[in-house]
């Protein structure tokens, strides 16, 4: 196995080659898990896999989440979140179809499942069919943003922010990014959940901002004041560190740590290009508000 680190200063984003998830040795698994926790995002090159392979590999990291209803496809396993403009009959979906509009919500910076009471640890995304142009995925480092916060002139210190709790919701974020796409029954099933604004990683013991598009407001603050703070932090995450653009090849897997990085999808021509991505998502252990914070 070979691991090449892309951003040395941030210890962020690595490319892993000479390794096959279908022939996974215990020692390799330990190295892979360590690399995700150290570097936030890793790309595994040349992994020709199906859903069963992906699920079997992903389960090594812990229990998997079930996909949300808009992310499911008839006939595939419930652990697979499918991000795609191709339907179950292998036809391209219309530009104004619910799924295509819903998936565009992924083009805002976010952390997967931050709208769940127990948010996810890792996302494991595999490319099954990719457009010739566009359709890359971008990553930024919310830990570097926190660690450089004090070097800049911000209204609040990390100490001021340390114990802040925010509320996250996918109904809120989709409302902002795609318009009002959910029915009332779904909205009721997906209430706001509480998350810490600053999370300390249980293995590295280093902290990161935990925001992104699902993060709506600050508990106990005036809504607009809280949104201003969240916007300032989101803006700083993008400005402070490197935005790494991953242009997909076929048969790649990217794994990221949702406790540290934000990601987003990027534009491709949905009217003519097919894109099929399958994600498994490793569930967390606790709600973030039960985690200790170390600054
Ligand atoms: C995801 C996601 C973006 C993309 O898989 O969670 O946001 O590029 N993907 O498909
Ligand atoms: Mn996502």
- Order of helix and strand elements from N to C terminus: EEHEHEHEEHHEHHEEEEHEEEE
Gross morphology is globular
What is the CATH third-level topology name?
Answer: Double-stranded beta-helix
Poorly predicted ranges: none
Q: How would a crystallographer describe the biggest sheet?
A: 7 strands, mixed
Can you give the helix content as a percent range?
10-25%
Q: Which CATH class applies here?
A: Alpha Beta
Distance between the termini: 34 Å
Descriptive notes:
With 295 residues, the protein is α+β, with helices and mostly antiparallel strands. The chain has a single domain, classed as 4-Layer Sandwich (Double-stranded beta-helix), CATH 3.60.130.10. Helix content is 24%, strand content 25%. The strands form four sheets. The chain has a seven-stranded mixed β-sheet with strand order 1-2-3-13-5-15-4, sandwiched between helices. N-oxalylglycine binds next to strand 5, strand 14 and strand 15.
Short description:
By secondary structure, this protein is of the alpha+beta class.
What is the secondary structure topology, with strand pairs?
Elements: E1 2-7, E2 12-17, H1 26-39, E3 41-44, H2 51-59, E4 81-84, H3 98-104, E5 120-129, E6 137-141, H4 142-147, H5 158-161, E7 165-168, H6 170-177, H7 184-189, E8 193-196, E9 198-200, E10 207-209, E11 215-218, H8 223-240, E12 244-246, E13 253-257, E14 261-265, E15 276-283
Parallel strand pairs: 2-3
Antiparallel strand pairs: 1-2, 3-13, 4-15, 5-13, 5-15, 6-12, 6-14, 7-8, 7-11, 9-10
The structure holds N-oxalylglycine (OGA) and manganese (II) ion.
Residues 83, 106, 112, 123, 125, 137, 263, 265, 277, 279 line the site of N-oxalylglycine (OGA).
């Amino acid at each position: 196995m070979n691991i090449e680190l892309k951003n040395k200063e941030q210890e962020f984003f690595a490319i892993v080659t000479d390794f096959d998830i279908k022939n996974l040795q215990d020692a390799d698994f330990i190295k892979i898990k360590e690399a995700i926790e150290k570097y936030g995002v890793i790309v595994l090159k040349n992994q020709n896999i199906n859903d069963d392979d992906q699920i079997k590999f992903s389960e090594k990291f812990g229990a998997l989440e079930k996909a949300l209803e808009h992310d499911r496809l008839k006939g595939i396993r419930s652990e697979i979140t499918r991000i795609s403009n191709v339907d179950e009959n292998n036809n391209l979906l219309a530009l104004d179809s619910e799924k295509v509009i819903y998936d565009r919500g992924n083009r805002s910076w976010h952390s997967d499942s931050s709208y769940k009471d127990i948010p996810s640890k890792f996302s494991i995304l595999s490319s099954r069919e990719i457009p010739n142009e566009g359709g890359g995925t971008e990553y930024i480092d919310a830990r570097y943003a926190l660690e450089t916060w004090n070097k800049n002139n911000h209204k609040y210190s990390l100490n001021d922010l340390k114990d802040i709790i925010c509320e996250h919701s996918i109904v809120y974020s989709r409302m902002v990014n795609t318009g009002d796409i959910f029915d009332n029954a779904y909205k009721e099933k997906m209430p706001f959940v509480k998350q810490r604004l600053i999370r300390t990683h249980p293995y590295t013991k280093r902290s990161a901002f935990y925001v992104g598009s699902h993060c709506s407001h600050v508990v106990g603050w005036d809504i607009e004041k809280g949104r201003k703070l969240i916007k300032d932090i989101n803006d700083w995450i993008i400005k402070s560190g490197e935005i790494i653009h991953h242009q997909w090849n076929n048969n790649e897997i990217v794994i990221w740590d949702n406790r540290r990085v934000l990601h987003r999808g990027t534009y491709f021509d949905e009217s003519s290009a097919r894109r099929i991505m399958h994600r498994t998502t490793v569930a967390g252990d606790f709600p973030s508000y039960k985690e200790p914070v170390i600054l």
